[in-house]
Specification:
- The structure holds two protein chains of two kinds.
- Helix content of chain A is about 40%, strand content about 5%.
- Chain A is mainly alpha-helical.
- Chain A is globular.
- Chain B is mainly beta.
- Chain B contains eight helices and 55 strands.
- In chain B, strand 21 and strand 22 form a beta hairpin.
- The chains are: A mainly alpha, B mainly beta.
- Chains A and B meet through strand 1, helix 2, helix 5 and helix 18 of A and helix 6, strand 27, strand 31, strand 32 and strand 33 of B.
């Protein structure tokens, strides 16, 4: 009687759960779903993490909070605990909103490690031919989350691989210092291995670009990950090395050489080509979207994800049903400084998707939704104007483009500028492709590449989870050179300490794991 | 037929004794003495034997013979104390006990309309703290015996009803598992406190054991009892939030210049939302029991109870039927004693959404409650809606709508039954075999129906309402068998008593949940959960009693639980105790003052395995529901859904938590035990604590995990004193007082050996997400508050965001928090008194608690200016605490909110009158009135200082109850 096995139809033990290749596919699916839903029951109920509001602990929502709220692209008005401090860049090591993303990112790593361990048992067996590719995908997803951890929390985050069995132990940090090469090198070598570039380790190779179904990782996604890594290497490593920038140019060139990507340029009767990238059926723009977190209002319900991005941006005089949702959470708007990237620097730009009726441009009160323009970039509407699958509950179908071609174009231009001090004519041509597609005027020459690139990235890529990384790379997140509403906590904005370039390792984990060292200044 | 009269007097003081029970043995023929101790009755003849009995006196028998007058002098009873006390797998005479055991019988119970059986005991036993979770009908009560011995595993005592250890976890649809038992059917509670008493229950005994014995049939004639009550529940106190005038004034001051648009949101009503959702309610309770003996071999007792209790929060209601049958036949010249017991219960609950309580505190008082025209789409209830008329999902719901547009009803049935066969061997009557087969089955289920017009639930509002259905089934099966051998060695005057047994228990449960919208759309996919665990045990006990002076008890239990992996599965739990009845010593013989003196010393190890998880040591995978799938898209844009498999975090080395208890105590009595009491000192150390801790990120498949880590200690003193102050013909006055002093300290938390390790955060609060206000740290009590030290201005008001920078580094972060007080009281006190004068009686009982602190989460999350409006979309109210703090943003971690919540509560007063001469004395009748929750004296600012976990948010106010009751019987 004492040797029990679960009698619950939904539970199984590890040694019994994996019988076929399809079972393994479901294990891999959990890692993908980890970016979209918060647990095994949508939208909430069997959360992956405990101790948090489940909706908030969702991956994309946490990423959005960490990457967008501290920047000029978003201001959030909710009074939930220490959330206002994220917008103000006055967070501490106990901030629950930062903490939840930290655990979520490392959780993805743990899931991938467990999957790789289990799946490895089947490699070479008949009927399990796709398993090496599954493992490559898991390695990609692990490297991807490690990149987020590196970007937000630095090189000192706990480092675990499939070699670390599940148990009670104290993971060592990837490296001794907050800035350093260890985690960077690991992510690079993993990404190179799964695109087949590492001859000693090419057992697991990703499908070719566009050979995977939309939502699954392919080589192009790994190229983009490497591109991001090389572009930001000076931040991660603490010093600049033109060789790394060159590697960035080369890897993005391989993306272009794959020959399967192009900007999505089909304007529809209801929405422009640019808007179509952020609609409920944006899988139809897969010629531009390289990799996305996928969502579905009925089959992947969450209070995070694009549901959060859309619903949190609804409020005031807006009719949320115009955007395909019944829910209006009234939290996220944008700052006047961001609005000026369009109004002042690029007037009549079709990418300026604001809702201004009843909204003031200026912000005096952080917690007043009608202060600051509302942003209606993401919608739960399809190209034909119909609603997403779950209007009534307000859960969105809209996929979240993690990497897309327009970003690659801007990255290439920036790499060129960082190597040569100027942007090539070919890149200016690509930038004009982006601008034309977006409904903006073309540029002939770029006199101040730094200023232009920083603003153009905002104009093209706002609310897509890149902004904090970009501002850090350009040296403009902290200090007083660049201020915006409520930076530092006051309406006109003020300087903040340079420690905010990195987020603190949550005090709970510094407590639980004495091998970890808190980031400088916290 | 023979007539007989006489007078009964006390052998002690020669005074007549009224109310003495007189029965002709073997018949139903009997009477009682009048006020002057006189009686008269007729008996069958000279062979008749009369049995005289009265509380506090020894039973006296006398054959009638040829007498017509028979005067009796009754001796006061020391034996009265030698009541038989139910212990684990058997019973013992009180004077033979070696452990810390306290029995409370029906006459000592708290009286009145009580929420739960637990409360019958409240304040009566030192070392036992009982806190109900609020005033909801049928609310659960938490029992703590000698402080909590665990951190994350259950701290609830094991509850054994008529020999069946029950599943103490709640079942869906019923908050309080003990509600199965009708308080009127309970004969005694026996509280086993120290390890020498509890260790026979091994792995479930760390938090003490409460044995409940129900009333049994008696020999003799038929008796019938009726007990009925009628109560009125009133609201004793509400939270002070701003009234509409204060609110308008504050809103104007705050927003007139900065953000006048907000003022447009205000309404023109004056609503006290707490008044709107609370009410004065009524409750009634009826019980009938019948007992007797059929055919002189089958004693029986059967009872039926019905109660109906409306809560003071509108719409809450509890309806309960209970039935109880006990049959105790004996066979083969009393060699085989059979005890058949069956208890059934049916409860119908209507739950009120307690979210309405906090909702009412924070709801804009200028808004109208209802306006059938303006708010027609929402059923007439005021609702916050956007420009489209769609309700704003993140806005608070109308508190009254939360109650009236939500029908949350459940039905629970439970059956506890057992058959106990006790056989004394014919060839060796000193050897006894006992077989106990028992079962505890329950079935609970209910529906939560949301009105199609309910604005507080956007999904339901959009989809013609919603209906969530849940069902839970639980089964617990028990087989116990033991042999007991008792032999008296006359030479050395040694009583030898050895018992050994085997126990098998199986727990099984199943939960099914469906959730559909009114239009048929599935809201949440069907959820099925099943789980089970087994417990297999061997146990034994040796009692040695030398000359009735020196007593030794040794017990041993071997438990095997399926909740742990092989290798960790087995636990051995020994105990040893010794006691010395000094009063039996010859050198004490002459002492008239000291009537009882017993010294006890005991040691034992107990365990804990109630960890809430049946497969915590197994690496298991959970399949995702269809609402939480991974999605890919084909090139044509059509979706591919893939269900997911999630590996769960686990600790393969999960094992027992063990508690080692040392206990020394004395029981004393003076003046023929007119004054009695006991004093106990104990030390309890728990090792391998089961604790849910934030684990190092990356080390497992979760961020928090239940694991064995650390040790903690409880040290305490318990003292009780009971006195029969006045005892004479007309007057009887007794009073009791008890004290408990307990100190809890965590001595080890060795996930890491690091002096800078702060500890394990715990105690989630309302406000933000994942915020904890308490911490378990080495060297401090468990659940210590972990807060920043508030800085105050010269007027003594707290300054926002100003905290003492304890490490002086210029940054206020986690390193500046300190451990400040905790929620467990240092000292608990219980007092009770009882006065009878002729046919009148009066009793009162109360409790005091000192040194318990409470985090006022109602204020910390309910009094800051940012709460006044959200996004310009809706407004909210604050508590009057705002005038003291003037906080703009929440200051959750300020020690300002940690308040001393010491209190004295007068739980209960009762006054009653007994009619004992109805129908020639054949009928008994009694009427009484009680007041429950009479008053509370405290310095705490919140609603009620009695908050079990020390975090005060959303407490259902405990009603003040006025009750009238009547008892009838013959």
């Amino acid at each position: 009687d004492l040797d029990v096995t679960p009698i619950d139809p939904n539970l199984n033990t590890a040694d019994k759960v994996y019988q076929t290749q399809d079972d393994l596919r479901e294990g891999l699916a959990k890692i993908y779903a980890g970016f979209s839903v918060s647990g095994q029951q949508g939208p909430a109920g069997q959360g992956d993490l405990s101790g948090f509001d489940e909706g908030h602990s969702q991956y994309l929502r946490g990423l959005f909070v960490c990457q967008e709220l501290p920047t000029e692209e978003v201001i959030n008005g909710w009074n939930d605990g220490n959330l206002p401090k994220v917008s103000q860049m006055t967070w501490g090591d106990g901030n629950e909103f930062i903490r939840s993303f930290y655990y979520r990112a490392i959780y993805q790593v743990s899931l991938a490690n467990e999957f790789i361990r289990q799946a490895s048992r089947f490699v070479g067996q008949e009927g399990f031919e796709r398993v090496p590719e599954f493992i490559a995908e898991a390695r990609y997803l692990r490297a991807f989350s490690y990149w987020h951890a590196l970007d937000l929390f630095g090189n000192g985050v706990p480092f675990v691989t499939e070699a670390n069995e599940v148990g009670a132990f104290l993971p060592l940090p990837a490296g001794e210092n907050a800035r350093g090469p260890e985690l960077y090198k690991y992510i690079e070598s993993e990404a190179l291995a799964i695109i087949g570039d590492n001859p000693e380790d090419n057992a697991n190779v990703l499908p070719d670009a566009e050979a995977a179904v939309f939502g699954e990782a392919d080589k192009a996604a790994a190229y983009m990950l490497l591109g991001k890594l090389y572009l930001n290497h000076a931040v991660y490593l603490g010093s600049e090395d033109n060789g790394e920038y060159q590697k960035g140019l080369q890897i993005l060139q391989r993306l272009y050489d794959a020959g399967v990507y192009s900007l999505y340029t089909t304007d529809g009767p209801n929405y422009s080509a640019y808007e179509a990238l952020f609609l409920a059926d944006n899988q139809l723009t897969s010629n531009e979207i390289i990799w996305a977190f996928t969502f579905d209002g009925l089959n992947a319900k969450t209070f995070g994800g694009t549901t959060y991005i859309i619903n949190a941006s609804m409020g005031g005089a807006m009719d949320q049903t115009d955007y395909g949702t019944a829910d209006a959470w009234g939290g996220n708007r944008t700052t006047p400084e961001f609005v000026d990237y369009f109004e002042v620097d690029s007037p009549n730009d079709g990418r300026a998707l604001f809702f201004t009726e009843g909204q003031s441009k200026e912000i005096q009160n952080q917690d007043q939704f009608t202060e600051g323009y509302a942003v209606v970039k993401f919608k739960n509407k399809k190209q034909d104007g119909s609603d997403g699958s779950n209007l009534s509950e307000g859960f969105a179908d809209t996929n979240f483009p993690v990497f897309r071609l327009a970003d690659a174009y801007l990255m290439t231009a920036e790499l060129e500028w960082r190597i040569n001090g100027s942007i090539s004519a070919a890149s200016i041509g690509r930038i004009n492709e982006i601008r034309t597609r977006g409904g903006a005027s073309t540029v002939n020459s770029i006199t101040d590449p730094k200023d232009f690139l920083l603003k153009e990235r905002a104009r093209e890529l706002y609310w897509e989870g890149h902004r904090r990384t970009d501002l850090v790379r350009f040296g403009e997140l902290v200090g007083d050179n660049y201020v915006w509403a409520f930076k530092g906590g006051i309406p006109s904005g003020t300087s903040v300490n340079s420690r905010y370039n990195l987020m603190p390792i949550p005090s709970t984990d510094v407590n639980a794991n004495p091998n970890l060292k808190q980031n400088p200044g916290y | 037929q023979q007539a007989i009269t006489g007078k009964v007097i006390s052998g002690d003081d020669q005074q007549p004794i009224p109310g003495v029970n007189i029965v002709e043995k073997g018949t139903a023929n009997g009477t009682i003495t009048d006020f002057d101790g006189n009686y008269s009755m007729s008996v069958s003849g000279p062979d008749a034997i009369l049995l005289f009995s009265f509380v506090g006196y020894q039973d006296t028998e006398q054959q009638v013979g040829s007498q017509t007058t028979m005067n009796i002098s009754m001796a006061t009873s020391v034996e009265e104390l030698s009541e038989v006390v139910v212990i684990g797998y058997g019973s013992a005479k009180k004077e033979d006990l070696t452990g810390s055991v306290k029995a409370i019988s029906a006459s000592d119970f708290n009286q009145g309309s009580l929420n739960s059986p637990q409360e019958l005991l409240n304040g009566k036993v030192p070392g036992v703290q009982i806190t109900n979770s609020g005033g909801a009908p049928g609310a659960n009560s938490t029992i703590r015996i000698r402080g909590g011995s665990s951190l994350s595993a259950s701290n609830d005592p094991l509850i054994v009803i008529d020999g069946v250890p029950i599943d103490n976890n709640e079942i869906a649809g019923m908050a309080n598992s003990l509600n199965t038992i009708n308080p009127n059917d309970i004969e005694t509670f026996t509280v086993l406190k120290d390890a020498s008493a509890t260790a026979i229950y091994g792995s479930r005994a760390s938090n003490g054991v409460i044995m409940i014995t129900t009333k049994k049939g008696t020999s003799g004639g038929i008796s019938l009892d009726y007990n009925g009550t009628f109560s009125v529940n009133t609201v004793p106190k509400t939270i002070e939030s701003l009234n509409s005038n204060q609110y308008r004034e504050l809103m104007n001051t705050r927003f007139e210049t900065t953000n006048p648009a907000v003022l447009d949101l205000l309404g023109d009503a004056n609503t006290d939302w707490q008044d709107e959702i609370l009410r004065t309610s009524v409750a009634t309770d009826h019980n009938v029991s019948v007992g007797g003996e059929i055919a002189e071999f089958l004693p029986y007792r059967a009872s039926v109870g019905y109660s109906l209790n409306d809560g003071i929060l509108k719409t809450s209601q509890l309806k309960r039927w209970t039935g109880n049958i006990n049959l105790n036949p004996k066979f083969f010249d009393d060699h085989l004693a059979v005890n058949i017991s069956a208890k059934g219960m049916n409860i119908e609950n209507r739950f009120a959404d307690t979210g309405a309580l906090n909702g009412a505190i924070g709801f804009d008082p200028t808004q109208v409650v209802r306006d059938p025209e303006r708010f027609a789409p929402y059923g007439g209830y005021f609702a916050w809606a956007g420009s489209t008329g769609l309700p704003i999902n993140i806005a608070p719901g109308n508190p009254l709508a939360l109650l009236e547009q939500k029908l949350d009803k459940s039905t629970v049935n439970r059956f506890i039954g057992n058959i106990q066969l006790d056989y004394k061997f014919h060839f060796l009557p000193e050897l006894r075999a006992n077989l106990n087969l028992g079962t505890d089955r329950s079935k609970g289920g209910g529906n939560v129906i949301i009105d199609p017009q309910a604005a507080f639930d956007l999904g339901a509002f959009q989809n013609e309402g919603a209906n969530k259905r849940y069902d839970e089934k639980k089964r617990n099966e028990l087989l116990d068998f033991y042999l007991q051998y008792v032999h008296k060695f006359e030479g050395p005057d040694l009583n030898f008593d050895l018992m050994a047994g085997y126990s098998w228990q199986h727990f099984w449960n199943e939960k099914i949940e469906t959730d559909v919208f009114g239009n048929g759309t599935i809201r949440n996919p069907e959820l099925i959960q099943r789980s089970e665990n087994f417990l297999v045990s061997f146990f034994g006990r040796l009692n040695l009693n030398l000359k009735n002076r020196y007593l030794l008890t040794a017990t041993l239990r071997n438990d095997n639980s399926s909740r742990f992996a092989e290798g960790n599965r087995e636990g051995v739990f020994p105990s040893l105790a010794f006691s010395w009845n000094i009063d039996q010593e010859s050198f004490m013989g002459g002492s008239g003052t000291l009537s009882t003196a017993k010294i006890r010393a005991g040691y034992g190890i107990t365990g804990q395995q109630d960890i809430g998880e049946d497969y915590g040591y197994l690496g298991i995978y959970t399949r995702g529901q269809e609402t939480a799938q991974a999605i890919g898209y084909n090139p044509d844009g059509s979706p591919i859904f893939v269900s997911t498999l999630r590996p769960e975090g686990f600790d393969a080395d999960l094992k027992w938590e063990t508690t080692t208890t040392w206990n020394v105590g004395i029981d004393y009595g003076f003046k023929d035990d007119r004054f009695t009491g006991s004093l106990d000192l104990y030390l309890r150390t728990t090792d391998d604590l089961l604790n849910t801790i934030p684990i190092p990120a990356g080390s497992n498949l979760s961020n928090e995990l239940l694991t064995n880590v650390g040790s903690l200690e409880n040290r305490g003193i318990e003292f009780s004193f009971d006195a029969n102050i006045i005892q004479n013909q007309d007057w009887f006055w007794s009073a009791g007082i008890n004290f408990t002093y307990n100190v809890n300290e965590i001595t080890k938390l060795t996930q890491v050996d690091d002096p800078s390790y702060k500890g394990v955060p715990t105690g989630g609060i309302a406000g933000g997400t994942g915020n904890n206000i308490q911490i378990h740290s080495v060297g401090y009590p468990a659940f210590s508050f972990f807060v920043w030290e508030q800085i105050y201005d010269e007027n003594g008001n707290p300054i926002e965001n100003a905290y003492v920078d304890r490490d002086g580094n210029g940054i206020i972060n986690d390193d500046d928090k300190y451990r400040y007080k905790n929620s467990a009281p240092d000292v608990l006190m219980g007092v009770n008194t009882k006065v009878t004068y002729k046919n009148w009686d009066f009793s009162a009982s109360g409790r005091a608690s000192f040194g318990n602190y409470v985090y006022n989460n109602v204020n910390s999350d309910g009094a800051f200016y940012n709460k006044l409006q959200t996004n310009g979309q809706f407004t909210g109210n604050v508590t009057t605490n705002i005038y003291e703090t003037n906080f703009v943003t929440p200051q959750y971690f300020s020690d300002y909110y940690v308040e001393d919540a010491s209190y004295f509560r007068l739980d209960n007063i009762m006054i009653g009158y007994n009619f004992n001469n109805i129908f020639g004395g054949k009928w008994r009748a009694r009427v009484y009135g009680t007041v429950n929750n009479v008053f509370v004296i405290t310095g705490y600012d919140g609603l009620d200082p009695e908050v079990f976990d020390g975090i005060d948010n959303e407490v259902y106010p405990r009603p003040r109850t006025f009750m009238l009751g009547v008892n009838l019987g013959f």
